[in-house]
């Protein structure tokens, strides 16, 4: 009887270890299945992009992180669009929970590069470059990105610095034909052959209406015919000593120039004219005339102008003063 009691007690002693082992084995199977699903999903996505005309190459897809998380790496990725734009990075990392693949965190290492169709290459470095892709029960999907302390330098000497850029983009609930972007950026600086341009703050929320019509050989023409527009719910920009607050709706005309009206408030407006002169949207002479005219108008409003900005015939006007040339969209 005593021996039988000892054997029974040993069974109870080993029991928790057996249960823990079974749980660990089951979790390992779930982790392995999730890793395989992520690899298959990535491979299928690449195949779809290749069928659409994109040339994408990469090395082996590997999975690490067991048991605490699931991390999939794609090494030496090169992607070229039909345009052709080309993007290269030594690694892309995707993080997910093994039991929930509806949320992916995508991390790109410090160094990657982009080549433009004109042949100019940009080398990009960022302390933090993360993106999130989520399956949203209300909107279907949501994409977000965070970039911190980033710089991009071209072979021609142009330099773009960014303190931070944060945005998310998603279709409207119940209306996937409308896509909304929320953006916040700070300390943006553009340095090229001309005088440096600085944008201290940019915050905006905009919706692209009838995004589903941007297809075909001439997507802008179809989008215009279908009533496409961009609704600017709010915009705040600080630059060159000026502050612009704006909202309204814009679209494109038959020549693919922006057209529409924005309600705006512009503080210390001379800085806006200087900015547009620096980036080539006004000639130096036009920028000086616009700065003088806007400063004169602003005196009556104690340094601010609360007026509509009208976009028509390839230019933008504030109280009848041309403040920018608007190039046609491709």
Describe this structure in words.
The structure is a single chain. The chain is about 25% helix and about 50% strand. The chain has 4 helices and 17 strands. The protein has a 17-stranded antiparallel beta sheet that branches. About 15% of the residues are buried. The protein has about 325 residues and is an alpha+beta fold. It is elongated and about 85 Å long.
Distinct helical segment count: 4
Radius of gyration: 27 Å
Bin the strand percentage: over 45%
What is the mean pLDDT? 84
Helix and strand composition category: alpha+beta
General form: elongated
Task: Please tally the β strands and state the result.
Answer: 17
User: SSE order in H/E notation?
Assistant: HEEEEEEEEEEEHEEEHHEEE
Note the main sheet: 17 strands, antiparallel
Helix proportion of residues, in percent? 25-40%
Distance between the termini: 91 Å
Keywords:
single chain; 25% helix; alpha+beta; 4 helices; 330 residues
Topology, pairings included?
Elements: H1 2-51, E1 55-57, E2 61-64, E3 70-80, E4 86-97, E5 100-107, E6 111-115, E7 121-134, E8 142-154, E9 159-172, E10 175-191, E11 197-209, H2 219-225, E12 229-239, E13 242-252, E14 258-267, H3 270-278, H4 284-300, E15 304-312, E16 315-318, E17 321-325
Antiparallel strand pairs: 1-3, 2-3, 3-4, 4-5, 4-6, 5-7, 6-7, 7-8, 8-9, 9-10, 10-11, 11-12, 12-13, 13-14, 14-15, 15-16, 16-17
Helix pairs in contact: 3-4
Give a summary of the structure in a few sentences.
The chain has 330 residues and is α+β, with helices and mostly antiparallel strands.
